[in-house]
Specification:
globular, six-stranded mixed beta sheet, binds zinc ion, 10 helices
Length: about 325
């Protein structure tokens, strides 16, 4: 019930919506995006472009650390990198710490969700998230399935993109506070189908559902595997089912910007960190994921292999996704 009211009284208008959708539950007509856009953009002092090159440099820096498996020194180094980055941008940085049993060794492994908040005083929030842990091994590698897995696309691409997106939010006017959340334990998997996934996002969602998270998150966007050099992003089936309006609004912004790599058709249905956010936290959450790595028809041959390296990712791809998210965010912040 609370959630129902929250949705009606919260952001009933999303970027890219049609005029027929503009009345909220109180009967007030909301200003459409196109009304807003015709006004000169004099408020936003940082109306600058997303910098895909800078995002890619962060992807490379993260990969230089080496593997970032949960509970390892590589993960610790990455945590310091992300914390320093967000603190330098003026965010409030916090952690959710918990432990899980190691699926092979039986020891306790520390897990940390990193949370960086801008404008913490604002109750209404938008959340951007990704997983930042990497697979323990390159287990789908045809040559060396026990080899080192770097996770340039499946891990570092989300980190690079969100770190760069965060440069734009502190000075951006609007009613929403913005949270960036880095989930641990998305793929702490030693045996496929035996070991549970989404440990960090599940923990986060339970904390949120129990009221142990400040503010109300109106929408969340998850990014995963968005650095692929041959970018092709389709609607993800679970997002379309569980967060339909949000999902369509993002593709609609991509269409406005002419970013052709976003195709408004469903292709895969993927289990990812957005499932607990939608089902446990009840936050409408969309997963933006390019699950054909390198491209449609290649049987996802780089995924979870030793080919998931920076050379198979590109600054242009991060730039395209980053531009869409930055524009979506700017439109959200302008809707009254
Ligand atoms: Zn993965």
């Amino acid at each position: 019930m609370i959630l129902f009211l929250g949705i009606l009284s919260g952001s009933s208008v999303l970027p890219g919506q049609q005029a027929t959708d503009k009345q909220d539950s109180t009967g007030k007509v909301q200003m459409s995006f196109s009304d807003v856009e015709q006004e000169p953009d004099k408020e936003d002092p940082v109306a600058t472009q997303f910098n895909g090159e800078a995002a890619f440099e962060i992807l490379e820096a993260i990969c230089e650390i080496g593997p970032r498996v949960s509970g390892t020194p590589g993960m610790k180094k990455q945590q310091k990198f992300i914390k320093d980055h967000f603190q330098s941008l003026g965010a409030e940085v916090g952690e959710q710490v918990f432990t899980v049993r190691h699926p092979e060794r039986g020891t306790q492994v520390p897990m940390t969700n990193l949370i960086a908040r801008f404008h913490p005083e604002r109750r209404k929030r938008l959340l951007f998230c990704c997983h930042y842990d990497t697979r323990p091994f390159a287990d789908r590698d045809p040559v060396n399935p026990n080899g080192i897995f770097l996770g340039a696309n499946d891990g570092a691409s989300g980190v690079g993109l969100l770190c760069e997106l965060a440069r734009h939010v502190k000075e951006m006017p609007g009613k929403y506070g913005i949270d960036f959340v880095f989930f641990d334990g998305e793929e702490f998997v030693y045996v496929y189908r035996r070991d549970p996934m989404f440990l960090g996002s599940t923990y986060f969602s339970r904390q949120y559902a129990a009221g142990r998270y400040p503010g109300k998150v109106n929408y969340a966007i998850l990014v995963d595997m968005i650095g692929d050099k041959e970018l092709e992003i389709y609607y993800e089936g679970n997002s379309l089912q569980m967060a339909s309006r949000l999902t369509r609004s993002i593709w609609s912004v991509a269409n406005e910007l002419g970013v052709k790599e976003f195709t408004a058709k469903e292709r895969h249905k993927i289990r990812d960190d957005h499932l607990p956010l939608n089902s446990i936290a009840r936050i409408p959450t969309c997963d933006i994921i390019d699950f054909d790595y390198p491209r449609v028809g290649t049987e996802n041959m780089y995924w979870h292999t030793q080919q998931d390296i920076p050379e198979n990712c590109s600054a242009k791809s991060l730039d395209k996704v980053g531009r869409v998210l930055l524009e979506w965010l700017r439109q959200m912040q302008k809707i009254r």
